[in-house]
């Protein structure tokens, strides 16, 4: 009995470690993808405030899109028929909340070490919306840090 409980705890620890590692790599890659062009453009234009304002705008756009991806779909859809009656249809579709579809950025981050050593299915990762939401907070945090350092 204890051996099964220990194996289950090890599997859970391994899963959560992988999820947090995957989240961290995704956030670092996305922050780098956001700030590398901003930094190059700021250097080219001699406008250091471009990093701050650009990071702020990109961070809030990502925040909004991440929130949208996390928003659950309603369990029903209501339409008014030609006769003026209200018709309610219950949604039976699956994957709206917590979609685990793999994006190009996710595939690229999976090739980076230490994730390149693991072969976990997409269902073991956090959802794309959650990762984008956390990355948006990181982008906004970097924007704040650059604002206090630059301005």
What's this model, at a glance?
The chain crosses the membrane at residues 20-44, 50-71. The protein has 151 residues and is mostly helical.
Element-level helix/strand string: HHEEHH
Characterize the main sheet. Answer: 2 strands, antiparallel
The number of helical elements comes to 4
**Helix/strand/pairing class, anyone?**
mainly alpha
- According to DSSP, the number of beta strands is 2
Terminal-residue CA separation: 61 Å
Number of domains: 1
Helix % is 55-70%
Shape: flat
Extract low-pLDDT stretches: 1-6, 94-98
Q: What's the overall average pLDDT, rounded?
A: 80
Which properties best describe this structure?
two-stranded antiparallel ribbon; membrane; DUF7555; disordered N terminus; mainly alpha; flat; 64% helix
Could you characterize the architecture of this molecule?
- This protein is mainly α and 151 residues long.
- It has one domain.
- Helices cover 64% and strands 7% of the residues.
- It contains four helices and two strands, in the order ααββαα.
- It has helices spanning 2-45, 49-70, 104-110, 128-150; strands spanning 76-80, 86-90.
- The chain has a two-stranded antiparallel sheet with strand order 1-2.
- α1 packs antiparallel against α2 (49-70), α1 crosses α3 (104-110) and α2 (49-70) runs antiparallel to α4 (128-150).
- The longest helix has 44 residues, at 2-45.
- The termini are far apart.
- Mean pLDDT is 80; it is low at 1-6 and 94-98.
- Keywords: Membrane, Transmembrane, Transmembrane helix.
- The chain crosses the membrane at residues 20-44, 50-71.
């Amino acid at each position: 009995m204890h051996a099964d409980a220990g194996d289950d705890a090890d599997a859970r620890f391994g899963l959560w470690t992988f999820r947090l590692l995957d989240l961290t790599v995704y956030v670092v890659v996305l922050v780098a993808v956001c700030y590398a062009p901003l930094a190059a453009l700021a250097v080219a234009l001699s406008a250091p405030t471009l990093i701050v304002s650009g990071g702020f705008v990109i961070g809030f756009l990502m925040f909004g899109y991440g929130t949208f991806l996390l928003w659950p779909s309603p369990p029903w859809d209501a339409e008014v028929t030609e006769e003026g009656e209200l018709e309610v249809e219950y949604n039976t579709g699956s994957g709206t909340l917590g979609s685990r579809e793999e994006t190009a950025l996710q595939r690229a981050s999976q090739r980076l070490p230490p994730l390149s050593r693991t072969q976990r299915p997409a269902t073991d990762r956090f959802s794309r919306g959650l990762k984008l939401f956390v990355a948006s907070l990181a982008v906004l945090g970097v924007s704040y840090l650059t604002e206090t350092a630059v301005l």
